[in-house]
Amino acid sequence: MEQLIRLAIRGISLSQIQSGIYVLLLEEESGRIKLPIIIESLQAQSIAYALGKRDPSRSFTHDLFITFSKAFHIKLKAVVIYKLLNGIFFSYILFEGENKEHKIDSKTSDAVALAVRFQAPIYTTKEIFDKAGIYFENGFPIENKENETSSEGGIENSVQLSFKKENSQKDLEKMTERDLNVLLNHAVVNECYELAARIKKELDRRE
Fold first, then answer.
1. Is the Cα dihedral 32, 37, 43, 45 positive or negative?
2. Is residue 154 a part of any domain in this protein?
3. What is the Cα–Cα distance from 141 to 124, expressed in whole angstroms?
4. What are phi and psi of 129, to 5 degrees?
5. Contact 92, 105 (CB under 8 A)
6. Residues with Cβ within 8 Å of residue 21, at least 6 apart in sequence
7. pTM for this one?
8. 151-190 as b/e: b if 16+ CB within 10 A
9. Range 95-127 burial, b when 16+ CB lie within 10 A, else e
10. CATH number for position 23
11. Domain containing residue 51
12. What gap in Å lies between CA 30 and CA 112, rounded to an integer?
């Protein structure tokens, strides 16, 4: 079975630069490596609601699913973020009903909203963490991590340096898909959404 890394929700932040943009920040057990995911406003509110910041006047479709699942004895066992393609995270939900397990593909933000309600674990693959995880220290992204010598493993210095300057289209075209995904996540964490949009466009072009 593919190696999976358990994640916890670190928080949800609203961009102060671009209206309607939220970032869901997931982290592994040590708290040093985080996975930022852009989500829509409604899903962000639903996740925050389920985490305890409840507004009694609000209800969400995710809450209706809880009632549905209890009525039909369905258990949500886990959420797995299993693929990253062109800056988009793909997930599936693992359910159990009638003593059988079922996998259902889901938008990652919806899957997380349900996982919080079911108190189910959230996992991702090591490949995604290596590709898109960002190292933090004292709450801030750090430029390098230890033992990074391979161009195929970890965040390369060239990616970090390119994040500090204006990236031309030629700069982006020279990067590998893996490096573009790393740069995209750094842009999101640092709220450089114009750069993030250009990186996303380059990833889409390669599809």
1. positive
2. no
3. 20
4. -65, -40
5. yes
6. 14, 15, 38, 193
7. 0.71
8. eeebbbeebbebbeeebeeeebeebebbbbbbbbbbbbbe
9. beeeeeeeeeebebbbbbbbbbbbebbbbbbee
10. 3.10.690.10
11. 4-129
12. 20
16 falls within a domain: yes
pLDDT band at residue 114 using 50, 70 and 90 as cut-offs: very high
Structure tokens at 10: 């670190």
Q: What is the pLDDT of residues 47-106, one digit of tens each?
A: 998 988 666 567 898 999 988 998 999 999 999 999 998 778 999 999 998 889 999 999
Cα 121 versus chain centre, distance: 14
Please list the helix, strand and coil fractions of the chain in percent, rounded to the nearest 5, in that order. Answer: 40, 30, 30
